[in-house]
Amino acid sequence: MTSVAESSTTLRNELEKIVGESKARATAVAVHDLESGWRFSLRGDRWFHAASTIKVAVLLAVFRAADEGRLRLDDSLHVRNRFFSAAGGAPFQLNRDSDAMPELYESIGRTAKISALVEGMITASSNLAANLLLDFLGVEYARKVLLDAQVAGVELRRGVEDHAAHERGINNEATANGLLTLLSAIRGDFLSSEGKQEVIRILLAQRFDSMIPAGLPAHATVAHKTGEISTACHDIGIVYLPEREPYITAILTEFDPEREGRRETVAAISEAIYRSVVGMEPKIK
Description:
Layout (H helix, E strand, L loop, with lengths): L3 H19 L3 E8 L5 E4 L5 E2 L5 H13 L8 E3 L4 E2 L6 E2 L18 E3 H10 L3 H11 L1 H10 L5 E2 L7 H5 L5 E2 L1 H12 L5 H12 L16 E8 L4 E8 L6 E8 L7 H16 L8
Antiparallel strand pairs: 1-2, 1-12, 3-9, 4-7, 5-6, 8-9, 10-11, 11-12
């Protein structure tokens, strides 16, 4: 087993090699191992477009609101595809073709349970579900939840696909350190025991497993959330291994829009983190 200092140095060197070979514009990594207490950060305070990782902040806010009695998970919300921009309030709609939960659009004009919207927002990364929930909660309430949870490094400013706001530079942004803190708040005591268990169950049901999980052995399970747009390719998660306490990690990357191999780069970073956490030497190519 390597020392903490050796582990950090070895991982830093290996990550810099992976990033250099991938031609990524920028990469940031943060790790907290709950078994040893080891913490690691590589450019962990650099800001990135949060993409769909911001939905974890909405998830936290929903379950905090449930704990506070503001809502019940079996309550229903009216489903619509009309929202108002954070930049000036102009109405906008979401693109059904880019949503991995197209069946939700069949419910427009009817209702859907909050529990189903939460599940769809995370496991299918539904933008419509995310905007419906955020609109119901309110951005200011969700921001207050992050503040109460002592999560710095995550800026929730608007719903998704708000192109007018994007053009004005009003974006959801995050750092690797901030998203690590967000996952730590979920796993900690900020939510009720029941809420925490349900949030982790939802994150474990994530459908998109080509990044953090792809770099891990078959016996690992990951409660995680991906985030991808034209330039961003992220994954953040809690990694469970049967022989030890879990570790939490956030991997954020930024690429040229047409660059291939983005998910493979995140998977390679995940593999390197895993080897460091369990004390293995880096693979020799």
